[in-house]
Amino acid sequence: MTVHFIGAGPGAADLITVRGARILAASPVCLYAGSLVPVELLAECPEDARLVDTANLDIEQITAELVRAHEDGHDVARLHSGDPSVFSAVNEQMKRLDEAGVPYEVVPGVPAFAAAAAALKRELTVPTVGQTVILTRIAQRATAMPEGEDLATLGRSGALIVLHLAARYVDRVVDELLPHYGADCPTAVVAMASRPDEIILRGTLDSIAEQVKAAGVIRTAVIMVGRTLGSEQFRDSHLYSPERDRHVC
């Protein structure tokens, strides 16, 4: 049998992919992070499915559940918030399944930064303004950042920076990026993107921290800093330009 690591999307239950929903509806076992995955998604599971909330389980307990389901001959839907490719803690699960000889696949989902961009009604890449997006986080007590990936270093690029898991440390984010982006750099914070309680904060690098604190945002949020967020004057993309020769491959 197979373990299916499924990106459940950023929050709204209907943002799971068609493939993810199909697998969920056919899997007799479902492991999900109760603190992050919308409970409405569980209604898609078979009526007699075994549902396991992993919020209070450690990696060995989670692995034991996956291996047990495999040994019982059951497919498993392993729901992760957002998309499994970034900040999902999927690697350590896949490593243990490899060691146990349990097959698995990964089903992508809508990442939080994409949902945040949709909420802001912004394309994160703008011709002649910015064509690079950096997805990152900041060092915390639990996990240090690799050398060269601190904000002070990444900020030198001037690219749009998207920070996950950093709203609680917004003052630190501002302090480290101010020298590179300037106080007037457009900045936004989106919390609970795509959910009914979504919070959207817009401002500049020198004003966003106070907004975040006033709104009480400390988790389930992304911080975006970069000129493309506020650019209104830019050249149109070559993709749809009337000057483009559409007969050339």
Automatic annotation (TrEMBL):
A single GO molecular function term of this UniProt record: precorrin-4 C11-methyltransferase activity
Keyword line: Cobalamin biosynthesis, Methyltransferase, S-adenosyl-L-methionine, Transferase
Pfam families from the UniProt entry: TP_methylase
InterPro entries per UniProt: 4pyrrol_Mease, 4pyrrol_Methylase_sf, 4pyrrole_Mease_sub1, 4pyrrole_Mease_sub2, Cbl_synth_CobM/CibF, Siro_Cobalamin_biosynth, Uropor_MeTrfase_CS
E.C. numbers: 2.1.1.133
Domain Tetrapyrrole methylase: 2-208
Protein's pathway: Cofactor biosynthesis; adenosylcobalamin biosynthesis
Uppermost EC category: transferase
UniProt protein name: Precorrin-4 C(11)-methyltransferase
Upper taxonomic lineage: Bacteria, Bacillati, Actinomycetota, Actinomycetes, Kitasatosporales
Gene (name only): cobM
